[in-house]
Amino acid sequence: MKAKEYKSGVKPIWCPGCGHFGVFNAITKALAAVDAKPEDYALISGIGCSSRLPAYATTYGFHGVHGRALPVATGLKVARPEIHVIAVGGDGDGFSIGGNHFLHACRRNVDMVYIVMDNQVYGMTKGQASPTTPADWRDSKLTPRGPEIPPLQPLAMALAAGAGFIARGYGGDPNGLAAMIHEAMAFRGFAFIQVLSQCITFVPEQQAWKELITEFNETTDDPARAGAILHGDNGLRKGVFYRNPRPSWPVSHGPVAEPGSGAREGFLAL
Amino acid sequence: MESITVAITGAGGAGAISSGELLLRLAGRQGYFGMLKKTFSPQIRGGESAAILRLSPQPVETFDGVIHLLIALDWHNFARFSDEVPISAETLVVQDVQAGTPPDNVPDGAETITIDGAGVAAGVESGWVNMVFVGLMARVLGSDVDTVEALVAQRFRRHPEATGQAAVRAARAGFSLTEAERLRALMSELRPTRAVADRWLANGNQLAGLGALEAGIRFVAAYPITPASDVLEWLAGHLEASGGNLVQAEDELAAINMVIGAGFGGVPAMTATSGPGLALMSEGMGLAVASETPVLVLNVMRGGPSTGIPTKSEQSDFNLAVYGLHGDAPHVVLACQSVADCYHTTAWGAALASELQTLVIVLSDQFLGQSMQILDAPETTLYRAERFKPADSSEVDGYRRYRDTASGISPMAVPGDAHCMYTADGLEHTESAVPSPRAGDHQRQLDKRQRKIAQHDFGDSWYTLVGSARADTLLICFGAVTASAREALTALATGGRSVALLSFRLLCPLPLDQLEPILTCYERHWVVEQNHSGQFCHYLRSLMPAVAFRSLARQGPLLITPREIVDAIVGDSL
Ligand SMILES: Cc1ncc(C[n+]2csc(CCOP(=O)(O)OP(=O)(O)O)c2C)c(N)n1
Ligand code: SF4
Question: Chain A residues with CB inside 8 Å of B255's CB?
Fold first, then answer.
C-alpha cells in the first residue's frame, strides 16, 4: 500500500504549519515501507494536539485519556502480541502527566514504538509550559517569568530507565523520520523516538529548528558512552543515539504443561 | 447452640494464626463447616494476632459476635483485640500457664482452665506450645490422633524434618490431655453427621480469582493494595496455565489503562483494587464507558477514607463505585453476597463487561475477601466473557463501531479483524468513531450507552429474597452484611417476629420495575449497611422517594452482628 492509503480521510484539527503533519506523514511512509496490513497495526495515544493522530490513520487506534497512552499500549501488546503497537503523543502527555509510565515502559521493555511529538509546549490547552520548555520561555500567562526550572532530558531519562532504542527525529524531515520509525518498528523491545515537532501557533520561534538541527551518526550500544553523549547534548541533533536490544517483556517460558490445570485442585485443602 | 466460636490469641511468634488454620482444616475433615477470621496488630511482622474460628455442622458465613471458647497463648496486649474478641461470663477461657495476668475485661466468674503448654511440650522434647493446644482441640473436635499428626506434619513440610517431628510430638501430647473431656461438652450438640473429603477451604479473594478465570478473564493488571492483593496473587499463579498474562503495573492509573488496552484487543481483562486505588482509576473507568471497552474492576473494600483502616472491612466505597465517574457514565456495579458468592458474582461481572462492552465494578470487602471458609465446591460457572462480533460481510461493509443499535450494543471489532479498523475514542464521537462535538452525536451516544445497560435483562440473579411475603418488615442489604441479616432473620423468627431479607447482587442499575412490587409487600423497610453515612439507604431513597426507608448504618471495622440487627428491628415495634 502507498503512504497516502494509510490516511483515513478524517480532517486533522491541526493548525496549518503544525509539525505534527510531518510526523503523521512519516508514520504513513514507514507503514508503506513495510507494506503494513492496517488491521495488524494499532496507534495508541493520550490527549493533546499530537494525540489526535490515530483517528487520521486507517489502522486500528485508541485515543484514550491524557498521559495514559503507554499503559493502554502495554495492555494491548501483552494481551495481543501479534499486533504491532505504536504509541504516540506530546511532551506534556508523555513526560508530565504520563511521566511515570514513560519510565516504566522503558524499563519494562514491551515491544512497541513510542513517538513523542515534542514541541516544548502544551499546544491543545493553548500554550502553557511543558516539562521540556526552556527555563526562560516567558510566553505563557501561567508562568510569566518562565518556568524557571531546567527542562527534562527525555533521552537521558530513557537511557537511565533502560530503553534499548533511543532516537531523536525532526518533523520537518518526513523522509528521514520515516526511515527512523521504520528502524524503530524493526527493533524488538521498547523503541523511543523524541520528535522535534514545531508548534507554529504558540512557539513560532521553532521554525528556526530547520536551520539549527544537525545530524548525529554515532549510534552506540555502550550505555556509558550514550550517557556521556546525551548529557552533553544540545537537544538539536537528530539520529539514533543508542541501540542495544535486550529481551523484551513478557518473557516467554515455553509451553505450559497442562493448560488450565490446578486452579480448582488447590482448594481441596481438607 | 448451633455453632461454636473459638478465639486463639497470642503474641508474635506464638502461632495463634497457624493454630487457627490447622484447626479449621481439622474441623473440615470432621465434616464441620466453618470460617476463620485473622486479625493482626498493625506491626508488619511479629505483633500480636488472633484467629477467630466459628464452626457448625451447618454452613457458616459470618460471625455472631459471641466467643464461646478463648484460648490465650499469651495475654500480652490482649486489650488490642478486646473489641473483636468480646469475652463474657459465658466464655470458657483456656490459658497457657505462662500467658501472664488475664486482663481486666476477663470477667471474674469466667471459667478458666490453665494448661502448662510449655511443660507438656518440654515433656516430649518440643518447644511447640501452640501445637499442644492444637492437639487438645483436635481431640475436642473428635479427630483421631493420626489425622492431627498428618496435618501437622503437612503444615511443617517445608521445615527441617526435626522441627516438624517436634511439632507433631507436641500435638500428640496435647491430644492426650484430660482437659479435653471438659471441652468436649461444649461441642456435644454440634457433631457433624459425616466426615467429608471434597469440601474446599478458600477465601473470597481466591474464589473471585477463580470466578474470573473460569469466566474467561485472560489479562490482569495489578497494583498491590490491601486487601485486594491476594486476588491478584492468586490470579498470577493461575493465569499462565490458561494462556493469560498478568502485568504488575506502576500504579493504578496504569493498571486500569492496561486493562482497557487488553479489553480493546478483545481479551477479557480485569484489575482488582481497594478504595484509594479505585479513586485513582476513576478517570480510566470513565474512558472505558465512553470508548465502550469491556473492563472488570474488583474493588475489595476496606475502612476509608484515605488510608483509613486498610486491614478491616467496610462498605464505604458504595458511593464511589456508583457515583464516582465524571460525566454521565452509565456502568454496572455488582456486590458479592458471601465468600462463596465471590466466585459467581465476579464471573457474572466478567460476562457482563464483555456482553455490555462497558465498565463493571464488583464490590467485595475485606471480610469476604480474606476470611477463610470451609464450603462446598462451587459448580463451574456458566458465565462466559464473550464479545459481540461483527457478524458477516454485510455488517463489515461500512463498519460503524458505535452504531446506534436497538439494544445499544454495537458489534465490536478488534485489531487483527480486516475491514473494520476504527479508532476507539474517549472523545465524543459519531457512530463511525470519528471525534465529534456535535449536540446530536453526543445525545445519540449518551442515549445508546444508557440504553444498553438500562434495557439489559439481568435475569433473576440480581437479588436474593428470603423469608415470607407475609412478613411485616423487610431487611435490605448487600455484601457481607447479608449473612448477618440472614442470622438475624432466624433469631427474629424464633422470637415470633416475621421478617424477610432482600439482598442485592446488582446495585446499579437497579431494576426498579421488579423491585417496587417486592417492596410493596412489606410495611417497613430497613436498610442495613456497614458504613457511617448510610450511603446505600440514601441511594434507595433517591430512587424510590415514596418508600420510607429506615437506616441501620454503622461503620467498620467491627462487623454488624445479627444481634444489632435484631435489636434495631425489635426496637422498631409495630
Ligand atoms: C486529566 C487531564 N488533565 C488536563 C487535561 C488538559 N490537557 C489536554 S491536552 C494537555 C496538554 C497537551 O500537551 P502535549 O501533550 O504536549 O501535546 P500537544 O497539544 O502540544 O501536541 C492538557 C494539559 C486533560 N485533558 N486531562
Ligand atoms: S496549537 Fe501547536 S501543536 Fe496544536 S495544532 Fe496548533 S501548531 Fe500544532
Answer: 71
How far is it, in rounded angstroms, from Cα B491 to Cα B480?
A: 18
* Number of domains forming the structure of chain A: 1
Just give the CATH number of B4-197: 3.40.920.10
- Using CB atoms and an 8 Å cut-off, which of residues 276-315 of chain B contact chain A? 283-284, 286-287, 291
Q: Please provide the CATH number assigned to the domain covering B463-573.
A: 3.40.50.920
Task: Write the pLDDT tens digit of every residue in A166-224.
Answer: 999 999 999 999 999 999 999 999 999 999 999 999 999 999 999 999 999 999 999 99
Pick from B423, B428, B430 the residue to mutate for testing the A interface (most A CBs within 10 Å). Answer: B423
Mean pLDDT estimate for chain B = 94
Is A226 a domain residue?
A: yes
Q: What's the pLDDT score for residue B564?
A: 96
In the predicted model, what is the mean pLDDT of residues B390-398?
Answer: 67
Is the pLDDT at B195 greater than 80, yes or no? no
Evaluate whether B201-375 and B463-573 have a shared fold: yes
Give me the residue spans of the domains in chain B. 4-197, 201-375, 388-456, 463-573
Does A269 map to a domain?
A: no
From residue B1, alpha-carbon distances to B4, B28, B207 in Å are 7, 19, 30
A132 half-sphere exposure, CB direction, 13 A CA radius: 29
Confidence band for A270, pLDDT divided at 50, 70 and 90:
low
The pLDDT of residue A258 is above 70: no
Residue A105 CB neighbour total at 10 angstroms? 28
CATH code: domain of residue A87: 3.40.50.970
Query: Model ipTM?
Result: 0.98
At position B563, the amino acid (one-letter code) is R
Residue A45: strand, helix, or coil: strand
Check residue B11 and give its pLDDT: 85
Q: Which pLDDT score is estimated for B160?
A: 95
- The answer to whether the beta carbons of residues B375 and B32 sit under 8 Å apart is no
A141 is a domain residue: yes
In a domain, A1, yes or no: no
- Contact predicate B137/B71, CB 8 Å: yes
- A18 CA to middle of ligand 2, Å? 5
CB contact under 8 A, B416 and A82: yes
d(CA A257, CA B110): 57
Interface contact flag, A74 B242, Cβ < 8 Å:
no
Provide, as residue numbers in chain B, all residues whose Cβ is less than 8 Å from the Cβ of A265: none
Q: What distances in angstroms separate CA B31 from CA A170, B81, B190, B195, B370, one per listed residue?
A: 73, 29, 11, 4, 22
Q: Which CATH class is domain B201-375?
A: alpha beta
Task: Please give the distance, rounded to the nearest whole angstrom, from the Cα atom of residue A17 to the centre of ligand 2.
Answer: 8
Would the pTM count as exceeding 0.80?
A: yes
What residue ranges in B431-521 does DSSP mark as E strands? Answer: 463-466, 473-478, 499-504, 506-508
Average pLDDT over residues B151-161: 94
3-state secondary structure of B53: strand
CA distance B73 to B147: 23
Q: Is A203 in the pocket of ligand 2 (CB under 6 A)?
A: no
Residue B553, pLDDT > 60, answer yes
Residues of B in contact with A260 (CB under 8 A): 241-242
Strands B33-40 and B372-375: antiparallel
Name the minimum distance, in Å, from the CA of A124 to any CA of chain B.
14
By residue range, what is the domain housing residue A213? 19-243
